[in-house]
Amino acid sequence: MDRIKSAINKIWSYELSHMFVYSVIINIVMECLNKRGVTGLLSIFTSPVIFLMNTMIIMTTMSVAYFFRKRIFVYSVVSVIWMIIAIVNFMVLCSRKTPFTAMDIYLISDAIKVIPLYINVFEMILIAAGVILVIVGLVALWRKAKEYKPSVTGRKFYIAAIFKCGIVFLLTYSYTAALIINGRVDTHFGNLAHAYQNYGVAYCFTSSIKDRGISKSKEYSQEYMDSLKQDLDETDLDTSDEVSVKTPNIIFVQLESFFDPKLVKGVEFSSNPTPNFDRIRSEYSSGYLSVPCFGAGTANTEFEVQTGVNLDDFGPGEYPYRTVMQSKTCESAAYDLKKIGYATHAIHNNDATFYDRYKVFSHLGYDTFTSIEYMDSDYQKTPLGWAKDKMLVPQIKKTLDSTDGRDYIFTISVQGHGDYPEVMPEGYNTSIKVSNFFNPEEQTQFEYYVNQVHEMDSFIGELVDMLKRRKEETVLVMYGDHLPTFSFTNDTMENGDIYQTEYFIWSNIGMEKKDMDLQAYQLSSAVFEKLGISEGYIMKFHQTKHNDADYLKQLKILEYDILYGDKQIYNGDIPYVATDLKMGIEDITIDEVYNYKDYVCVAGKNFNDFSKVLINDKEVESELISSTMIKIPKKNVVSKDEVAVIQSGEDKIELGRTTYKVP
Question: Can you say whether the dihedral through the CA atoms of 75, 76, 77, 79 is positive or negative?
């Protein structure tokens, strides 16, 4: 017995033993949170090889303690960081069903806007109190922690630390690489949620840090791209079924969290929630649309639809809007249609700054972007505060009326956005009753959601009716961006896939009905092919190569060349220049500023609730009287004062400014 105790003490005397044990404990807690129960403990026995890999990754981060003398403090800091990742992942999975990745840190400003919808005030207070306690605890630990007494000091101490950290890193890297080579672990996650369950939080989160963008293929070369370019240049689109190339107005509408609720097995409805959607699908081309996300990720679906780029080729959980599209332009439907004379517009009945659309849309070729900050103030909101989609009908009409030629309009709706209330909002009367939902705990939430979908379906009908009355040649494409945030699985769905929504292609130009299932990145090219339009290499690639055996491999190489490579498909120089994006369709103007009694009147056009007034660059309290008048109480202006009206949301980011010099 003494020998065993002596052996244990000997092993524990090595710092590596401390790191390993602490890492095992952290990994167990992380996996319990990841798997939402004590079943995380079973990972040690059910997946010991994967569990060890995650433990070694955590241990590698623990090894930075070699550089410090207060090692208990360092272990604690590293442990807190991993615990924060695990807890945030647990909370994120409660709301959006997609795990937390390093890319989400880029979305922190957007997350702050919607936190009140997912976390109540009491929970916010608990989180704040927890953060304070952790900080206080770490400060106390720093003061009281015993210092490690090394056998060497000075430069030798840090050389030894580098050597030890290097050994731990090489062991972890070698072990992980061996698992990847032998097929035990994937480096590409087709389903991020499944990857977190199968490969662990530590591995998947670490992968999301290092794997960004589109990786370079070994086959990528000047010769490869020259051959692909020549092939695409010499291949013509088969328009034998078309009388001629058609250039109608083209309108895409991406519906937030929209799908046919009747696809959920066993659910019963008091009446059909989607009569308009069903009727149009039965009369016009339609099908299932495979999207890159579930429960969240609107921007990634719209990126695929607009560009034809496959999100699977990016790093896990990456949002190109927040990475590559911040500084680069990309071939897109808007750029392609501009070549043949289209005016290009984006519309979104939510904040312009969400997902940085106010920056990104100029890199996707849009002439105008009308966000909620540039829409009329008399719109309705859902009980959760999202703008209702019916307001988009007049906005789309106004956009069509703004030009004499053909228009391409890409619209993103917001009404169906979660999270959905567990208790029906007071005073909210549901017109459709729902029963037999597979998860009784989500019954009320699903009924609320179904009624929002019903209102969105009414919007679909109103939009189609408006376009019919215009009697202007038009193609309308509508689809859901992803399924809503419920505990759906493939088994709960009639179509057997939680990564599928539906689409339809309505038109008043006699397009033949042809149903087919598509990937989101194929949708635009499929629509344009029906019109005989083939502009841009990505669009033409999808139209002519989608049946090739190496279709996806070639697509990835083409995407890499355009976004990260040498632009060889364009002879080395990308032809797309960022547009001078105009916010809103109608100009906001100041016609006159004058004093009246004890306040200032700002007279002009197209003011709304997002209009704020500055006098000599200083924001002043103001009151919107109408779209033509803003009142500034207890102020006076004098000659040469500069009065400005700016448009901005709650985040205070200025989107546009109109100035007026007082005569």
Answer: positive
